[in-house]
Amino acid sequence: MAGQRVEIDGGIMEGGGQILRVSTALSCLLGVPLRVQKIRAGRSTPGLRPQHLSGLEMIRDLCEGQLEGAEIGSTEITFTPEKIKGGTHTADTKTAGSVCLLLQVSMPCVLFAASPSELRLKGGTNAEMAPQIDYTLMVFKPIVEKFGIKFDCDIKMRGYYPKGGGEVIVQMSPVKQLNPINLTDRGTVTKIYGRTFVAGVLPFKIAKDMAAAAVRCIRKEIRDLYVNIQPVQEPKEQAFGNGNGIIIVAETSTGCLFAGSSLGKRGISADKVGIEAAEMLLGNLRHGGAVDEYLQDQLIIFMALASGISRVKTGPITLHTQTAIHFAEQLTKAKFTVNKSEDEDDFSRETYIIECQGIGMTNPHL
After folding, report:
1. Residues 6 or more apart from 365 whose CB is under 8 A from it?
2. What is the predicted pLDDT for the residue at 2?
3. Which of 106, 111, 119, 179 is the most exposed place for a label (fewest CB within 10 A)?
4. For residue 70, with 0-12 CB atoms within 10 Å meaning exposed, 13-18 middle and 19 or more buried, which class applies?
5. What is the DSSP string of 312-333?
6. pLDDT tens digits along 334-366
7. Predicted confidence band at 251 (pLDDT cuts at 50, 70, 90)?
8. Is 283 left (phi over 0), alpha (psi -120 to 50) or beta?
9. Residues 17, 59: contact at Cβ < 8 Å?
10. Which residues, in sequence order, are CB contacts of 87 under 8 Å at separation 6+?
């Protein structure tokens, strides 16, 4: 089944873990052997980190493939995929490495498995440099389900930087194929809601202060909507370690979702954390796109696999999105175009339409 090995330069564009996630997921799906060189070449700690390694090992196990060069610090791997199988798969970063990024790499693969899958993902649920699990549940899940996907995600334990220790269980049934999506009509903002949290030894007052600061900041720009941000004390038995943070979601009349989020760090006031999330949300609402900057790149792989033409209106195209498009095109034969939006409302804004003719991947087992 294995065709010609594809060579991937892991040092270009985003130059990090994202190239690994996109290319190994597509390699697994298409049955194409892969060599990735210069992995995270330009990073302060080059090569594979624990979270990248656990993602690669999970993909290997999902399809009973062969993986060479997979160790911490390695800058080159080769991967030879076999048949994708369903069932229970576990990935543990053993650090605060993000469970959401583990889901990003494994989800496209198990959609085309022979039977339903259960993914047990361990690491950080609300950690830096990655989506928070709340983003995955509140924004990514409802939008990605428009491709005709259904999945359940159960948070068993929340984990924070630096200890990790979180666990989520994702259950997913395979699909025959993916529907294309059209996310071009933003609509008007109808609701703004969210949650702030403290876990471990941090006082509940921090959660209340983050929420109050975020509401004040949003009120300056959006006066006519009730902003419902709930402060939460994470239950002791459902949170490992200490952490605090916030996510705020705006929902529109057409079902578009946008978010702003932030995590507390030592020495950063609760107000500052709340304001950072509020400003991120407001920024995502200004550009006129139908998705926020974090959803952009996560949709690319699904657009490439769908049967038909998908169209997504976005704000400025992120480096992550450019990277995902580049490697999706290199590996799949999907064709992407990115053009400035022609709508007169978008004339003065940086608004783009990403269009993709998907390859119409079909599940051979269904």
Report:
1. 112, 113, 114, 115, 174
2. 53
3. 179
4. middle
5. EEESSPPHHHHHHHHHHHHHH-
6. 999 999 999 888 788 899 999 999 999 999 998
7. very high
8. alpha
9. no
10. 115, 117, 118
Structure tokens at 317: 């195209």
The token pair that represents 46 in the structure block? 């080059």
pLDDT at 346: 79
> What is the set of active-site residues?
320
Strand partners, 189: 252
Percent of residues, the chain, with pLDDT higher than 90: 96
Cα dihedral 184, 324, 18, 366 in deg (nearest 10):
80
> For residue range 199-243, what is the model confidence (pLDDT) as tens digits?
999 999 999 999 999 999 999 999 999 999 999 999 999 999 999
- Between CA 201 and CA 356 the distance in angstroms is 48
| Backbone angle region of 40, left / alpha / beta, with phi > 0 → left and psi within -120 to 50 → alpha | left
Q: Supply 71's token pair.
A: 């160790």
For residue 243, what are the β-bridge partners? 199
Q: How many CB atoms lie within 10 A of CB 203?
A: 12
* Selection from 336, 342, 296 nearest residue 315 by Cα: 296
Structure tokens at 137: 């549940």
Contacts of 299 (CB under 8 A, 6+ apart): 143, 144, 181, 291, 310, 312
Mean pLDDT, residues 69-89 taken together: 97
